[in-house]
Amino acid sequence: SENVTVAVNLQGTIPPEDTDAPLYAAWDGAAPAGPLAESDYSFSTTLAAYDDTGVQFDLTVYFDQTTNANEQEFLVTCDPALDRRLIGATSTRYNDGAVAEKGAGALLYGKLTFGVSGDLAGIDCWEVPADTLLTPTDANKIVLARGEADYSFAYNVSGTGANLLSTLNFGTEAVPQSITSPGPALATAAGTTAPYATPLTGWDSVYDSAGNQVQDGDSITFTGTDGDGNPVTLAYVVDQNNEIGDLLTQLESQFQCDATIVDGQLRLADLVVGDSQLAITGITYRDAAGLDPAANPSLAQCFGTEGSGFVVDAGDRYNLAAIGTTSYATPSATLYQQQDGFATGHLENLAVDKHGIISALYSNGQREEQAQLVLSDFTNFEGMAMLGGNLFAATERAGTQTIGFAGEGPLGSVQGNTLEMSNVDLGQQFAELIMTQRGFQANSVSISTANELYQTVLRLK
Questions:
Q1: At CA 148, angle to CA 143 and CA 152, rounded to 5?
Q2: Segment 353-375 mean pLDDT
Q3: Are residues 166 and 152 in contact, defined by beta-carbon separation less than 8 angstroms?
Q4: How confident is the model at residue 349 (pLDDT cuts 50, 70, 90)?
Q5: CA atoms within 13 A on the CB side of 291
Q6: Closest of 226, 227, 246 to residue 236, by C-alpha
Q7: Residue 93: beta bridge partners?
Q8: Is the confidence at residue 188, as pLDDT, over 90?
Q9: What is residue 236's three-state secondary structure?
């Protein structure tokens, strides 16, 4: 199980706890009566998972309120007796000794933050140490690497090899970080009440909030970094024959982002989810003569004042998928569960598709592609040697042989579980059948005539 998805609704009308009683502190993997009492959590959900040998075990995720409104904590766990993870960077495993560790079975701790509407807005996670003495701070928080959208937890139930990793998703889609220009570009000189510029607005119709018009030859320089932190500078020169969309294209190319304009403001979104260093730290303006706004007060500053930087959008880090984790007023319930592991299976059948791909079908529902048939094509089919039983052999008269896969170029398709019909010339075969039938009839008449003569001879005698 490399990817686990759990979507739940956590009842949002339950009041926050009066005192801080986190799940990781209540968890005791060494307790004979069980690691967690029912009074320690408000909701839980369990799903089957599998290790790399196909062994099944249960993953249970516990949820509970914290002392903060619109916040829920969670703890990902397995049966403490099955936990055989390596502890830290040592060779010691959970359940190696005579006394089980308190943190056995506690795989990942985190907090879910919800917006006022009950939609999931943020996730923070921490690893639970063997003694469960966790202090959730920024210093020990799990930080997602660039490109990572979900947090991972380690598990091991075999007691051999390195720990396995699986990601946990709460039915969300990560939203890349975006930044927005501090000022809007307008499509007329009517001040702040003017309509905002769009990607299709020509530069000859662009004004700033003070009513200054962008002139041909003006330059706008954007200085900052791309999502990976590489320094980037774009010096854009205005051509009034172009539209603002031309600037968006160049911003996308230089800063490796998606660039749009919303309500007249430039908005740049990173192409990669997770941690991002996308930033524009300063905008500078110069007219065609190289004068700055101080020397040329009528120089348009259409996306913010000289030297200003873009603002990092502090919006939600996640969008809900079709079914995602929420905190609505309805009772807590599991909405969706899914994981990509499976048990060990044995081969049950083989299948061949129209492209000649041979797939193995296993008892655990898995389908694995094993091989692919290749086909041959010849320039002269009539030159093939017929071997019988729908078999042909290549000859020099058949011409050059071309080998490829079904459906490519002139090659036909493959039909599995199908017997090929006769591929002979039916017209010729019917003609030969008629000739054979006539010969048989003639032979029959000869035998009848001979028999009559024999009978006549017997009578004469």
A1: 65
A2: 92
A3: yes
A4: very high
A5: 10
A6: 246
A7: 86
A8: no
A9: strand
Is the pTM higher than 0.85? no
Enclosing H/E stretch for 357: strand 357-362
| Weakest mean pLDDT among 25-39, 159-173, 290-304, 415-429 | 415-429
Q: How many CA atoms lie within 13 A of 338 on its CB side?
A: 10
The pLDDT tens digits for 253-290 are: 999 999 999 999 999 999 998 888 999 999 999 999 99
DSSP 186: B
- For 299, list phi and psi in degrees, rounded to 5: -70, 125
Question: What is the DSSP secondary structure assignment for residue 344, as one 8-state letter?
Answer: -
Between 299 and 457, whose confidence is greater? 299
**Residues 75-123: tens digit of each pLDDT:** 999 999 999 999 988 889 999 987 889 999 999 999 999 988 998 888 9
The answer to whether 51 and 162 have CB atoms below 8 angstroms apart is no
Segment 290-317 mean pLDDT: 91
Q: What are phi and psi of 252, to 5 degrees?
A: -60, -40
> How many other CB atoms sit within 10 Å of the CB of residue 49?
21
126-133 CB contacts, 8 Å cutoff, 24+ apart: 127/153, 128/24, 128/27, 128/75, 128/103, 129/103, 130/87, 130/88, 130/94, 130/101, 130/102, 130/103, 130/104, 131/101, 131/102, 131/103, 132/24, 132/25, 132/27, 132/28, 132/102, 132/103, 132/106
- Distance CA(75)–CA(21), nearest Å, equals 13
Q: Is the dihedral of CA 134, 138, 140, 146 positive or negative?
A: positive
Q: Give the residue from 137, 127, 131, 166 showing the smallest Cα distance to 27.
A: 131
Residues 177/147, Cβ–Cβ less than 8 Å:
no
In the prediction, which pLDDT does 191 show? 59
**Rounded to whole angstroms, how far apart are CA atoms 401 and 410?**
12
Reduced to 3 states (helix: H, G, I; strand: E, B; else coil), residue 266 is strand
Query: φ, ψ for residue 257 (rounded to 5)?
Result: -150, 175
Position 173 scores a pLDDT of: 86
